[in-house]
Design brief:
Blueprint: H1 21-26, E1 33-36, E2 43-46, E3 53-57, E4 64-69, E5 75-80, E6 84-89, E7 95-100, E8 106-111, E9 117-122, E10 127-131, E11 136-141, E12 148-153, E13 160-165, E14 169-174, E15 179-185, E16 192-195, E17 201-206, E18 209-214, E19 220-225, E20 232-237, E21 243-248, E22 252-257, E23 263-268, E24 273-278, E25 284-289, E26 293-298, H2 317-320, H3 344-350, H4 354-361, H5 364-367, H6 371-384, H7 387-391, H8 396-409, H9 416-430, H10 438-488, H11 492-496
Antiparallel strand pairs: 1-26, 2-3, 4-5, 5-6, 6-7, 8-9, 9-10, 10-11, 12-13, 13-14, 14-15, 16-17, 17-18, 18-19, 20-21, 21-22, 22-23, 24-25, 25-26
Helix pairs in contact: 3-4, 4-6, 8-10, 9-10
Length: 503
């Protein structure tokens, strides 16, 4: 048996997503921190790695619905259910200013680009602009006909404000003319809006759609994205502006490229998503969910390469000596034979211990992590004609392992041709002992159903292939006939009536 050939393990392509630079970038986040959050009359501020809030603002009569920082991080503004808008200093706890003017819950607050005014939108259909130093109302816009649930202020022009409403419209207001200067129809209740850093593009989310509008062309629709299965609730831009993120009630966060507007990555979460935010330089992604959990993921810092790598020791030259030697005409090359080591299952097969070889590949490290090895050994046993001998004589525990492996991998297309034959052998061998063990009986029923389904699917597939073959054959016959007719220059009518051909 000196010429024994090891079992060839067939390689299969791995199914799954295509690995891209975006996949590597967005997957480079550490396991998340989860914070329990409930809707209350408090606003909590958490540290980067702290499980407990480092500061709490609790001067609200009713539930606080929204809050945002000023760009310098020193002031915080929040809106509550009673219609109040309160301004806080981050270092203190008492509100610096309170703006009373809305009659219903406030869902939108934001600072303008000049840092001295505040935008607010509420369920009373109004959008208001407040002056921070004087704590007075500057403007009030009442053009929406339903709840104002989202909005933002332009970071380039302090007079431009954008709001989205449940009346299916997105409006851009100009504080200088005291009215809206642009209106776009989204088509569904608008849940979130944002402006690109350049100020030329507007994004709206509502229903299952994310739509991008060109402001410079009068609100022309550029693209409509429908990649979510449920309502899109929130939007966010990466720090570079090259990636757009959307969160939805379908428990997914989609990442789009802002050049092609294609999905480049997707995050899965445990519950429906209500809010989404990215920290500076995309170092942290924060997601709020309907189950009261605030999920925080931190991106791993990129390892910097040493610009001055350490020089290798001179002793390394001894290991590479002669590798670059060029063979001359009179030289004789003497190669050392490489010794090959057989795997444990190959040793068992070499010594004709078929049952032992099957036991080897049914161990967890093979049947769970490398099922292709188990299938390859089974296929080799079947080729030798000793598979039935290796399957026979098993006790309850060993038989349960074989049945569980068949149930798990029988429906996989790459293993089905081999494992269906194995399943039929197992059923034939152990059919007389059915009824002695409830565990084995249950597995047998599941296996039998899987085999019947697989056979039924293959029968349907053969029928479909037969119909497709007939269609293809008919098409080929028609094409060949038409080519023949054109080449002769004679039509079918002329063939039937030769007298019609002029001489």
């Amino acid at each position: 048996m000196a010429g024994y050939k090891p079992v060839v393990i067939q390689t299969f392509p791995k199914l799954g997503e295509k690995i891209t630079q975006d996949t590597l970038y967005w997957k480079n986040y550490k396991p998340p921190y989860n914070y329990a959050v409930t809707a209350s009359s408090r606003i909590h501020i958490y540290g980067r790695y702290s499980q407990e809030p480092i500061k709490t603002f609790s001067r609200f009569k009713d539930t606080a619905y929204c809050a945002t920082y000023r760009q310098d991080g020193r002031l915080l503004v929040a809106g509550s259910e009673d219609g109040a808008v309160q301004l806080f200093d981050v270092t203190g706890r008492a509100p610096l200013r309170q703006f009373d003017g809305h009659s219903k819950a406030v869902h939108v607050v934001d600072f303008t680009a000049d840092k001295y005014r505040i935008l607010s939108g509420a369920d009373d259909y109004t959008t208001k602009l407040w002056d921070i130093p004087n704590a007075t109302e500057i403007l009030s816009f009442s053009e929406h006909t339903d709840y104002v649930r989202c909005g933002c202020a332009s970071k380039l022009n302090a007079d431009l404000l954008v709001t989205g409403s449940y009346d299916h419209t997105v409006k851009m207001f100009d504080a200088r003319v005291k009215k809206s200067v642009l209106t776009v129809e989204h088509g569904q209740p608008v849940e979130s809006v944002l402006l690109f850093p350049s100020g030329g593009l507007l994004v709206s989310a509502g229903g299952r759609y994310v739509k991008v509008w060109d402001i410079l062309k009068g609100g022309q629709l550029l693209v409509s994205l429908r990649n979510h299965h449920k309502t899109v609730t929130c939007l966010c831009l990466s720090s570079s502006g090259q990636r757009l993120l959307s969160g939805s009630l379908d428990r997914k966060v989609k990442v789009y490229s802002t050049t092609s507007y294609k999905v480049v990555h997707s995050f899965d979460y445990a519950a429906s998503i209500l809010s989404l935010a990215l920290a500076r330089e995309d170092e942290t992604i924060v997601v709020g969910m309907t189950n009261g959990v605030l999920n925080v993921k931190h991106r791993k810092p990129e390892t910097k390469k040493d610009p001055f790598p350490r020089r290798r020791r001179p002793a390394y030259r001894t290991f590479v000596r002669g590798k670059n030697y060029m063979k001359k005409q009179d030289d004789v090359l003497v190669s050392r034979p490489l010794k090959t080591y057989l795997q444990t299952y190959d040793r068992d097969l070499k010594s004709f211990q078929v049952s032992k070889a099957l036991d080897r590949v049914l161990q967890p490290r093979f049947r769970v992590k490398q099922p292709e090895v188990t299938v390859a050994v089974i296929q080799e046993l079947n080729r030798r004609g000793t598979l039935s001998n290796a399957l026979a004589g098993r006790d309850e525990k060993q038989l349960s392992i074989i049945l569980s492996f068949l149930i798990r991998h029988l429906a996989e297309p790459r293993f089905a041709p081999v494992l269906i034959n194995v399943a039929e052998m197992v059923i034939d061998i152990y059919l007389p002992v059915i009824g002695q063990s409830p565990v084995i009986d249950k597995q047998f029923l599941v296996l039998q159903e899987l085999v019947e389904k697989e056979i039924s699917y293959q029968g349907q597939l053969l029928e479909a292939l037969g119909m497709m073959d007939m269609l293809f054959a008919t098409m080929i016959r028609k094409e060949s006939t038409s080519v023949f007719d054109k080449s002769n220059g004679v039509s079918r009518e002329q063939e039937q009536d030769p007298s019609s051909v002029s001489v």
